[in-house]
Amino acid sequence: MATRCEGCRGNGAFKNGPACSGPVQLLNVSLCPVTVQQCVAVVQKSLRQGRGGWIVTLNVDHVRRCSRDPRYAEAVRDVDLPVADGMPLVWVSRLQRTPLPERVAGSDLICVLSRALGSEGRSVFLLGGDPGTAAAAARVLRQTCPGLVVAGTHCPPVGFERDPQLDFCHYFPPMRREQERIRAGL
Fold this sequence. Notes:
Strand content: 15-25%
Oligomer: single chain
Order of helices and strands: EEHEHHEHHEHEE
Number of helices: 6
């Protein structure tokens, strides 16, 4: 299954941005050519339409892992909005004349996206990191993003993603329909 480039569906125009010609291929990975603000707009539009989605902020190590780990590559191919979280990916895209507009760092995106979701009274679930980091991030987001609901947090053990019996759904508490799940990263 090819990446869907949900941000634009390969032929749409972004709010406050150029028309998208479709995903940018770097080696064996597709990336959506979006800015941070366009990424946020895509998420908000998707949520208003009653859809969720899966954003992954990819860097060089992730792209390299896709070439060696078929299971990981399959997970990345199923992502709704894969973005470049690394300047080397942006530079390579420019060298091959299919430029990505900018780096979409997960560390930036979590703040900008959380503020935007808070302005609409929406929610997030924070998954990952060292023990205690998701709870600490939740405290900061609650203080800095008025209206944001942190639906929950979980920091699974290192290597949890390699468990063939893994079911991500058990990490999320039962959620009301209007509470969205934002999954960022692999």
